[in-house]
Design brief:
Blueprint lengths: L4 H11 L9 E3 L31 E4 L8 E4 L7 E7 L2 E4 L1 H4 L7 E8 L8 E7 L10 E5 L5 E3 L1 H4 L7 E7 L8 E6 L26 E6 L2 E4 L14 E7 L8 E6 L6 E5 L5 E3 L1 H4 L2 E3 L5 E4 L8 E4 L7 H7 L5 H9 L4 E3 L3 E5 L5 E3 L1 H4 L7 E7 L8 E6 L8 H7 L2 H10 L3 H7 L9 E7 L2 E4 L12 E7 L8 E6 L5 E5 L7 E8 L11 E6 L2 E6 L3 E2 L3 E2 L4 E6 L3 E8 L5 E8 L3 E5 L19 E3 L3 E2 L10 H4 L14 E4 L8 E4 L8 E6 L2 E5 L2 H5 L4 E8 L8 E7 L13 E5 L5 E3 L12 E7 L8 E6 L12 E7 L2 E5 L10 E7 L8 E9 L2 E6 L2 E4 L11 E2 L2 E5 L8 E5 L12 E5 L8 E8 L2 E4 L3 H7 L3 H4 L3 H4 L4 H4 L2 H5 ...
Parallel strand pairs: 18-21, 31-39, 41-45
Antiparallel strand pairs: 1-30, 2-3, 3-4, 4-5, 6-7, 7-8, 8-9, 10-11, 11-12, 12-13, 14-15, 15-16, 16-17, 19-20, 20-22, 22-23, 24-25, 25-26, 26-27, 28-29, 29-30, 31-36, 32-33, 32-37, 34-35, 37-38, 40-73, 42-43, 43-44, 44-45, 46-47, 47-48, 48-49, 50-51, 51-52, 52-53, 54-55, 55-56, 55-58, 56-57, ...
Length: 1084
């Protein structure tokens, strides 16, 4: 939760009926469950004197009396907690007073059911928060007496913590057989008391606050926080604790969600009595104000994925009025100070093996769901895929931008302070309040989801916080309970037809000190599929679920096999178990050797080679946003380029790797040991230029390879001679000198593509040179150039057909129509895949004739080859991808909107045929001040289209660019047209800037290596970092049956080169602002 000035200011001031039957879930109203978490603020106690005032309460579900019926426990804030006994048939009895678990007159937060004393009965641990004071202000542990009463024994067990506790999780972290405890807390300090200071998390809270880890020693919980490697600082703003065996080593790991500016934590169990915190190594992008979270296997690959909630509204209109985005400078400062890459949205982290995750929430469609407190992952429809539920709502909208700007700004607050006593209460009275629906996402497989809250009956508007699931009526599907602020709680019956969509459930009976087998894993194999569930009841936000494990299996009557990995590492196997039944499984008595792995790790296809290549690309620090404020991302980090050739004719491939501004390009001589840096004075003399393209070709027909280097970049003036391309002549021994008259251009431009080929079939190599963008004004028209080689001299031949090109990024010569004349394929941003057919030396644009119209995208690269084995030329082109807020239909207007001599780029989302600028109101007003009068309030701006911002006459004079296709795509040549074939979803996780082809697994079929990512993106859109080096292996059917492997490359891949060196198949990877790497492929 991000805090505006008002909250900081006032904190400092204060310190001096049932749903329709056809829906899947029915809201039950006559159950006996009557609970309202009623919150009434006062001048002394309110959202400004206590920042977590509207965080709400939790839900704990479990069977307290072992009658096979799941009971419900709610926590209240000002309201007392309540315990409801399940009597069966949707009848519940309030037994709070009898049980003695009401926690009267004190603020409760999270609640957890766990058998703390090992007697086979679920106890209740309640976390306390809120204002200080009160007889039972400490966390309370209610021990189950077995007669529907409980006795409070937190002091006896060492768990009577006083502070701002959020939630607790009990699990056996050290495999000694008993339950240990992680206690999640929220810092007592005001947010205004912090700067982005490095390493604050390393300093323990001297006041005794901070997160805590308790080790269970003979039934007493001992503070083991620092010894376990757990951060216990004053900047831990914990809102979510998520447990899983993320790396499949058989030991419980932890993910901790932190609110405000502190980053989240990933604790991997080191199997030696503690944890190693590895978040920055394992995650690229994370949520900024992280709330609740959950972990489960979403794609049935036996790895636990993670969803973390934040506060980004679902609709553009609400985003424009509720969300404040960080500036680029503030974001970079936070990264520099150690707070990692945090963005204001939900994140869905796909697990790539426990040591690395990729964030794919934007592609999955789950990144924006309102002010979201918690997520639960469970199979709502018993189809075998786990779905996602997200609870939403804030009773008083602290971040409404009109309220903050006009009603509660600093000047207004000071004015009210002078006139009235009850200033805080009055400010809260006028604060906006409105219920919002919760979200449900049906898992369609392969990390694609369908929003189903409305159709499934879960869209009741409310102010929801904690939630939990269980089979409350024992009918084989999972029901749902939700705690709300200032309204009645929701109890939903799941009405799935369990005769059609069946399930199998497991009640695990563990050993004496862990009777519910917390930490166990159950893997079910059925119908050629597998599913895994883990027994960690503490989930979501301040809540805990029933420890009975549930697996949906579709319509199957039995499952093939069940494998249980118990908390101590022992394994049990079962076969042919029936479905629609709760199976009671008992842990083995005898202790065997602990078996760590569930599955054998996948065989590697490649790994880093030991061959030598000492090169690291160094990018300049130019910030595009300083020049063109409305750009959503930068374009100055498109190197390094690489090219290969045997320049000294010794039988080994040599490399040229381009430099950035101020850093010379490098020539590396190949040998059996690797690649050795060669000194080339001509390259050093031109280091002021930035290399954007490089091609080896023999210009002078002397039998050796010369070098053409394209110049570009964003950090030069449009008149800088550093933008001139360069031609270097090879002396035959690998020495290069710049040709003084080698490039025929009379104007300067940024080069985006260079391709060599014999266009006129005269036996020498000609060039196509494409312009990337205008040096100072992104989006203004650029063009391409055909350079014909005439006896070693390049002559520019004007081609009117090139006038259709936009912002060229790559080009390739190839014979598309098999007429023995090289045709030209050009790709770029905001343009079609463009095909020029060579009509005996004359290039003609035949894009439409070959079915490539309506392929306008943000293309970065293209490769050609016979990919389907039918003898003709196919294409694969790297595009922006789908894991982005920029979708098909995105449009860009380019114009000097304020008539000041400089153009602006206004990128728009297309929604229902209308175009809405993606830039925030304040961004637009800062660049175009005239808009402020038109949109004085954020609510006025919320639904404004670009046609409501500017006159039609202005827009008619603007350049307009559209997109039709955002996917990286495979184009199969059918002789006279191209068909698009789908690629695996991983190919769309991030923009692809480089593609290399080859038979990487030696099966006779062409495979693909995709590299990409773009980190220099404004925080409101988030960086694109989910490509870890994907290998796409073709299966039996061309363009289908893909197998996907990741090389685990973290970075912005800009170039790939494959070569064979001494019978070794190598790929050289060039990453922006990082060292180059060589990967060696294995026989598979």
């Amino acid at each position: 939760m991000r805090v505006p000035f008002l909250i900081i200011f006032l904190i400092l001031y204060a310190c001096s009926s049932d749903r329709l039957a056809e829906t899947r879930f029915v809201l039950k109203t006559q159950t006996g469950v009557e609970f309202r978490n009623e919150l009434e603020y006062t001048e002394e106690f309110n959202p400004y004197t206590y920042r977590n005032f509207y965080n709400g309460g939790g839900v704990a579900l479990g069977d307290i009396n072992n009658d096979q019926l799941t009971d419900i426990y709610f926590t209240g804030n000002i309201a007392d907690n309540k315990l409801f006994l399940n009597k069966g048939n949707w009848v519940f009895e309030d037994i709070t007073d009898q049980a003695g678990v009401g926690c009267k007159n004190v603020w409760s937060a999270g609640a957890t059911f766990a058998d703390i004393n090992g007697d086979g009965l679920l106890d209740i641990y309640v976390c306390k928060s809120g204002k200080p004071g009160g007889a039972n202000r400490h966390n309370e542990l209610f021990i189950n007496n077995g007669d529907l009463t409980f006795t409070e024994k937190s002091v006896e067990f060492g768990l009577d913590v006083i502070g701002l506790s959020t939630h607790a999780a009990f699990f056996d972290y050290d495999k000694d057989g008993d339950l240990d405890c992680y206690l999640l807390t929220n810092s007592m300090r005001s947010i205004g008391g912090y700067d982005l200071i490095p390493d604050q998390r390393e300093i323990p809270d001297s006041d005794g606050g901070g997160n805590k880890f308790f080790k269970n020693e003979n039934g007493k919980f001992i503070d083991f926080t620092e010894s376990a490697g757990i951060y216990t600082s004053k900047i831990g703003f914990g809102l979510g604790i998520t447990l899983s065996d993320f790396n499949l080593d058989g030991w419980t790991d932890l993910f901790i969600s932190n609110d405000f500016f502190e980053r989240d934590y990933l604790y991997l169990n080191n199997q030696n009595g503690g944890f190693d915190e590895k978040l920055t190594e394992a995650f690229g992008s994370i949520s900024m104000g992280s709330m609740g979270a959950d972990a489960a296997d979403l794609n049935n690959d036996m790895l636990a994925d993670i969803i973390v909630t934040e506060m980004l509204p679902a609709t553009m209109q609400r985003q424009r009025t509720k969300t404040v985005f960080e500036s680029w400078d503030k974001y970079m400062l936070a990264v520099d100070k150690g707070y990692h890459h945090q963005f204001p949205r939900n994140v869905l982290q796909r697990n790539l093996g426990g040591k690395a995750f990729v964030e794919i929430g934007r592609m999955a469609g789950v990144s924006a769901t309102e002010w979201s407190w918690g997520a639960l992952i469970f199979d709502m429809d018993n189809d075998g895929f786990k779905d996602i539920f997200i609870s939403n709502g804030i009773y008083k909208d602290l971040l409404d931008r009109d309220y903050l700007t006009y009603m509660a700004n600093e000047e207004q607050v000071r004015s009210i302070l002078k006139m009235k006593d009850a200033v805080v209460k009055e400010l809260i009275d006028i604060m906006p309040s409105g219920p919002v629906p919760n979200c449900a996402f049906r898992n369609m497989g392969d990390f694609t989801f369908e929003e189903t809250a409305e159709s499934w009956g879960l869209a009741e508007p409310g102010f929801s916080n904690g939630s939990a699931y269980a089979d409350l009526d024992n009918d084989g599907d999972l029901d749902l309970v939700v705690n709300n602020v200032n309204m009645k709680s929701f109890v939903y019956e799941n009405t799935t037809d369990t005769l059609k969509n069946r399930s199998i459930q497991f009640r695990l009976i563990g050993h004496a000190r862990n009777t519910y087998a917390v930490g166990a894993k159950v893997m079910v194999s059925y119908g050629g599929r597998k599913s895994i569930v883990e027994n960690y009841p503490s989930r979501g936000f301040q809540s805990s679920v029933d420890p009975v494990l549930h697996v949906g299996v579709g319509n199957l009557q039995t499952v093939d096999s069940v494998r249980v990995e118990w908390p101590d590492g022992q394994l049990s196997f079962y076969a042919n178990l029936k479905t629609n039944f709760v199976h009671e499984l008992f842990a083995p008595e005898a202790m065997k050797d602990i078996q760590k792995a569930y599955t054998e790790p996948a065989k590697k296809i490649a790994e880093v080679s030991l061959l030598k290549l000492e090169y690291a690309h160094i990018e300049n620090t130019f910030v595009d946003f300083d020049r063109e404020r409305l750009l959503p991302m930068m374009f100055n980090n498109e190197g390094p380029v690489m090219a290969k050739a045997d320049v000294n004719q010794d039988g080994y491939q040599d490399l040229y790797i381009g430099g950035s501004k101020g850093t010379a390009g490098k020539l590396f001589k190949g040998s059996a040991q690797g690649f050795e840096d060669q000194s080339v004075p001509a390259f050093e003399a031109d280091k002021i230029s930035e290399d954007t393209e490089a091609v080896f070709f023999d210009i002078d027909d002397d039998g050796d390879q010369d070098l053409y280097v394209g110049s570009g970049g964003r950090s030069f003036s449009s008149s800088s001679y550093a933008l001139m391309d360069r031609l270097y002549i090879n002396d035959g021994k690998g020495g290069f000198k710049r040709s003084p008259n080698g490039v025929p251009f009379t104007s300067l431009f940024v080069t985006g593509a260079v391709a060599a080929g014999d266009v006129d079939r005269d036996g020498d190599m000609d060039l196509f040179v494409g312009e990337r963008y205008h040096a100072f004004h992104y989006g203004l028209p650029v063009t391409g150039h055909l350079l014909i080689n005439e006896q070693g001299k390049l002559n520019a031949i004007e081609q009117s057909e090139f006038s259709t090109l936009n912002m060229v990024t790559d080009a390739v010569w190839t014979d598309v129509n098999d007429d023995q004349w090289l045709d030209l394929i050009v790709v770029g941003e905001w343009q079609n895949i463009t095909l020029f057919i060579n009509d005996k030396g004359i290039l003609r644009n035949k894009t439409n004739d070959y079915g490539l119209q309506n392929t306008r995208g943000l293309w970065n690269t293209v490769v050609t080859g016979d990919f389907d084995g039918d003898g003709d030329t196919d294409l694969m082109a790297g595009n922006h991808g789908l894991n982005s807020f920029f979708k098909r239909g995105t449009r860009m207007y380019v114009h000097d909107f304020d008539q000041n001599g400089s153009v602006e780029q206004i990128v728009c989302h297309q929604i229902d045929g209308k175009y809405y600028p993606v830039a925030d109101r304040n961004e637009l007003v800062a660049q175009l001040p005239a808009l402020k009068k038109k949109f004085l309030h954020f609510k006025d701006f919320s639904g404004a289209t670009i046609h409501e911002m500017f006159d039609q006459s202005v827009l008619e004079n603007a350049l307009v660019y559209d997109t039709d296709l955002m996917e990286t795509s495979l184009f199969i040549n059918n002789g006279n047209s191209f068909d698009i074939k789908p690629l695996p979803s991983e190919a769309q996780y991030s923009p692809n800037y480089a593609i290399e082809t080859g038979d990487f697994n030696h099966d006779g079929k062409m495979d693909f290596f995709l590299g990409g990512n773009q980190y220099l993106v404004k925080p409101q859109f988030g960086r694109f970092d989910a490509n870890h080096g994907w290998i796409l292996l073709q299966g039996g059917k061309p363009g289908a049956d893909w197998k996907v492997k990741s090389l685990g490359i973290v970075g912005q891949i800009r170039s790939l080169l494959s070569l064979k060196q001494d019978e070794k198949d190598l790929i050289i990877v060039g990453c922006n602002n990082a060292p180059a790497r060589i990967y060696e492929f294995y026989e598979n």
